[in-house]
């Protein structure tokens, strides 16, 4: 499995600048191989990781599940 390290702060700043979502970027990265995307802070410490699936259908399932969980956390936060 290929490992891809991404500086989280720079990545999310770039997404804002480009007015795009991380899911659109992930969709462009999908091929027949799974990839582990490792998000790092500015000190190269692992913040979180994501296993990018090998197909767009699974990516869409992941996106929906992420949105659901994120929404629930926001609701519980307020």
Overview of the structural elements:
- The protein has 78 residues and is α+β, with helices and mostly antiparallel strands.
- It has one domain (2-77).
- It is built from 3 helices and 3 strands; from the N terminus they run βααββα.
- The protein has a 3-stranded mixed sheet.
- Strand 2 and strand 3 form a beta hairpin.
How much of the sequence lies in strands comes to: 15-25%
Uncertain runs: none
SSE ordering: EHHEEH
User: Which structural class is indicated by helix and strand composition?
Assistant: alpha+beta
Question: What count of domains describes the coordinates?
Answer: 1
Write the layout of secondary structure elements.
Blueprint: E1 2-7, H1 8-18, H2 22-29, E2 35-40, E3 46-52, H3 56-77
Parallel strand pairs: 1-2
Antiparallel strand pairs: 2-3
């Amino acid at each position: 499995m290929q490992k891809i390290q991404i500086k989280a702060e720079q990545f999310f700043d770039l997404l804002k600048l480009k007015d795009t979502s991380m899911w659109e970027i992930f969709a462009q990265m999908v091929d027949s191989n799974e990839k582990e995307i490792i998000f790092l802070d500015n000190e190269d410490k692992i913040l979180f990781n994501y296993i990018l699936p090998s197909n767009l259908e699974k990516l869409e399932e992941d996106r929906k599940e992420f949105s659901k969980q994120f929404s629930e956390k926001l609701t519980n936060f307020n």
